[in-house]
Amino acid sequence: MSKDILKIEEEKTVDFEFDLIRRNDKLAEENRRIFLENGVRAFDIMGSVGSGKTSLIENIVKILNGKYSIAVINGDLATTIDAERISKYGVKVIQINTGKECHLDANIVKKAIEKIDLKSIDVLFIENVGNLICPSDFKLGVEKRVVVVSVTEGERVIIKHPLTFLEADIIVVNKIDLAEIMGVDVKKIVKDAKSINPKVEVVETSCKTGLGIDEVIKCLEL
Amino acid sequence: MHEYYVTKQIVDFLLEEAKKHNARKVSEVHLVIGKLACLGIEQIKFYYEMLTEGTIMEGSRLHIEEEEVEVECENCGYKGEIKHKNMDLYHFLLPVLSCPRCGKEVKIVKGRECNIKSMKVVV
Q: Which of B92, B112, B117 sits opposite A15 (nearest CB)?
């Protein structure tokens, strides 16, 4: 005798508490703890492609090399061009090639700092991938977030990309030596920055002439 | 811009969880995405469809709830919605980090998340 078996599909709900951004935040907190334990002061340098992130780091390193032991992490999609530029100054440089990713995240930074003897380092600059959008979602665990913008990006660059600037500690307005030629009013850029983020410090620089670099160093409290 | 990367992580996570629950099929997925996260909902939907193709998640319904932003002011104790500046010229509401009550700076406490809330599976 054959039996008819009725198969009943059962549906069930599975709940999670899994947040991708918070997971990165947690890793960032871990990085922060590692930096603190090792006496390392770390800074995230963000900004568009060509805004002057590497130039800013070069200028700061030129002045502070000797006073501090400095390391630099360079994030780029490909090549070691930036790493080579910085390593001229005799500081430790780690190049991260993200391949396709448009930002650095806390996990990739954690892997990079494992390659550095943190005990021998006082200051760490992390140059993010050139991008004004994505890095804002991914904290790295640094002391201050710096965003570099340049006058060649146009007067309204800040309000066009508000999220990255909302959580910045320092905004560097670079290439001000070109402002006149570009017909850009630097005051407008500064005003936009302050209007969305009242606590942010804004510094005008020219990485070409070295103007304003001292002020940036002061804001970094170095 | 990083929607592909984020969606891939979401799909990988869910496929792994579905396996743990011996699911034959995933029928529904619920996500919560903060309005201040740099994530485009349309792009996530597009990549979701693409990345679930040929898996037990193919054809599942994706629900995305957008989470409002909440800020906190240490100065006056305000807790609530973020202030917006109306940029008439650009037809855009710009979020600003100053307190709507006292004008001092505020801290973002909600609105940055990308949370996988739940999934419905057929076992």
A: B117
Domain ranges of chain B: 2-122
Contacting residues of B for A201, CB less than 8 Å apart: none
User: What is the topology classification, in CATH, of domain B2-122?
Assistant: hypothetical protein PF0899 fold (3.30.2320)
Residues contacting residue B4 through CB under 8 Å, at least 6 positions apart = B43, B47
ipTM value, please give it. Answer: 0.80
Strand residue runs (E) in A26-162: 41-47, 70-76, 92-97, 123-127, 144-150
Q: Per residue in A68-122, pLDDT tens?
A: 999 999 887 666 777 778 888 888 888 887 667 788 889 999 999 998 899 999 9
**What are the distances in angstroms from CA B17 to CA A27, B54, B56?**
22, 17, 12
Rounded to a whole number of angstroms, the distance from the CA of B34 to the nearest CA of chain A is 10
Q: Mean pLDDT per segment of 10 residues, for chain B of length 123 residues?
A: 88 96 96 92 95 97 95 94 79 82 90 94 93
pLDDT digits (tens, 9 = 90+) for A33-71: 999 999 999 999 999 999 999 999 999 999 999 899 999
How many contacts does A have with B, using Cβ atoms within 8 A?
A: 102
Give strand pairing partners of B121. Answer: A12, B26
Q: Smallest CA–CA separation between A131 and chain B, in Å?
A: 10
For position B59, what pLDDT does the model report?
Answer: 96
Q: Report CA A5 to chain centroid distance, whole Å.
A: 61
A67: exposed, middle or buried (Cβ count in 10 Å: 0-12, 13-18, 19+):
exposed
Question: Region A138-164: what's the mean pLDDT?
Answer: 91
Q: Given the DSSP bridges, would you call strands A41-47 and B70-73 parallel, antiparallel or unpaired?
A: unpaired
- Short-list A179, A176, A177, CA closest to A202: A176
Interface of A with B in 115-134 (CB under 8 A): 131, 133-134
With beta carbons under 8 A apart, name residues in chain A contacting B85. 195-196
Interatomic CA distance for residues B114 and B8, integer angstroms: 13
Does the model's pTM come out above 0.90? no
